[in-house]
Design goal:
The protein is built from three helices and two strands; from the N terminus they run αββαα. With about 130 residues, it is an alpha+beta fold. α1 runs antiparallel to α2.
């Protein structure tokens, strides 16, 4: 349902969807709004989903928080920091140990950018400080 809302608004508003991750309680998008205002895009996505969700779950009063956080990408380094943040989010929230196993992410679109084993949480890693 959420993915359908994004695609519908993307077609209507005309923004480029660069990267994404959709988690159970929130999402992250990296978009190029082109000629659109980011807050309008976000409002339309949230509203589109809320209307559809409310049809199936009429007892739910509120789905989204009132605001969202945006960030203007400053340079290439900033772009890749945010791209990595988006793709590591499922690991950060404990949904998977390997970000490439999370199905609701654009990470596979960038698979040639990431090294083998990137972002994989190692559960056998010893704790504490070691070395000299």
């Amino acid at each position: 349902m959420f993915w359908k809302s994004i695609k519908t608004i993307q077609e209507k508003a005309g923004f480029e969807l660069i990267a994404w991750v959709i988690l159970p309680e929130h999402f992250h998008l990296l978009i190029n709004p082109e000629e659109q205002i980011i807050s309008n895009i976000m409002q339309r996505i949230k509203l589109s989903f809320s209307v559809e969700y409310s049809k199936k779950h009429p007892h739910v009063n509120r789905i989204w928080q009132r605001s969202f956080w945006d960030h203007i990408i400053r340079d290439e380094d900033d772009f890749y920091r945010h791209l990595n943040y988006i793709h590591l989010n499922p690991v950060k929230h404990g949904l998977v140990k390997n970000p490439f196993e999370y199905p609701h992410s654009s990470i596979m679109k960038f698979k040639d950018y990431y090294a083998d084993g990137w972002g994989v949480e190692d559960e056998d890693e010893p704790e504490g400080e070691f070395g000299e």
